[in-house]
Amino acid sequence: MKKIGFLSFGHWSNGPYSQARSASDVLLQSIDLAVAAEELGVDGAYYRVHHFARQLASPFPLLAAVGARTSRIEIGTGVIDMRYENPLYMAEDSGAADLISGGRLQLGISRGSPEQVIDGYRYFGYGAPEGETMADVARHNTEVYLKVIDGARFAEPNPRPMFPNPHPGPLPIEPQSPGLRDRIWWGSASNATGEWAANLGMNLMSSTLKEDESGKPFHVQQAEQIEKYRAAWAAAGHERQPRVSVSRSIFALVNDQDQAYFGHDDEGSDSVGHIDNMRAVFGRSYAAEPDKLIEQLSKDEGIAAADTVLLTVPNQLGADYNAHILESIMTHVAPGLGWR
């Protein structure tokens, strides 16, 4: 059994086949797809976050809106770039969105991906202190964020406040949302950062690329990363069991439209490239008839090691078609793999 979610990159463009031609289109269709996914029995609705791009950028209004329109589905990000975040303001936003959704947020955060602009975080007012990198800043922001959503009291109260304080001593960020601390995920591209996330008690979000640390196939390296993460989690002595997600591009070809869109897109092998001065291995895509998909996916060691699979969806094809993609996986593929 696995949880199955979708991951939308939230692109919009004026391309001839795009059904998402504006930011408004993407935001409203993102909500509509989450509603449809919940009706189909999908477990999660996740959204990418990119700045200075024609993509989804400010997650918390969208997450709150999805939370208000749905009642069961998990709602998350994959991922929020912590180089751009004020961790205290983010704690307020995420606490409010989690309360609106009834405690269904599953927030993926990380050091971030390559940007559309040079050092975009500087335009947001952030930079690295001397002797540190922005990766250090992202990890520091994460540690602060985790502490404050866990109820840390740190702000000295005004002796003559506008309203009476609820208790003596330092004050925490409000609102607090119980349980949110256990629903934070770290988007990790390496074994070391996976182990760091385990030590801090974050769930692991492993994507469709990873630092190439051994030359082995992507899915094997990903499974090894998950194994090291779980070992670090156990060594840290956390009381709860962690969650682990992987992302995949998977398309079941069940009609002529599927064949037209993806019938020639079955990338049967990994690819290697460089991203942010890191040699990275990129996982293959899957596009085939359901029986063949079941056979192929059953050999994916990364998927086997995870408890949650996030299906990347081509959001510019519109909410209705993406709901069809999800329905095809839920109906024709997931049962054959034992995911349902």
From TrEMBL:
Under Gene3D superfamilies, the record lists:
Luciferase-like domain (3.20.20.30)
- Top-level division of the source organism's lineage: Bacteria
Q: Name one GO molecular function term.
A: oxidoreductase activity, acting on paired donors, with incorporation or reduction of molecular oxygen
A Pfam family annotated for this chain is Bac_luciferase
Read off the CDD domains from this record: Flavin_utilizing_monoxygenases
Q: Which PANTHER family match?
A: BLL6902 PROTEIN, LUCIFERASE-LIKE MONOOXYGENASE
Q: Could you identify this protein by its name?
A: LLM class flavin-dependent oxidoreductase
* Organism (species): Nakamurella flava
**Native organism taxonomy:** Bacteria, Bacillati, Actinomycetota, Actinomycetes, Nakamurellales
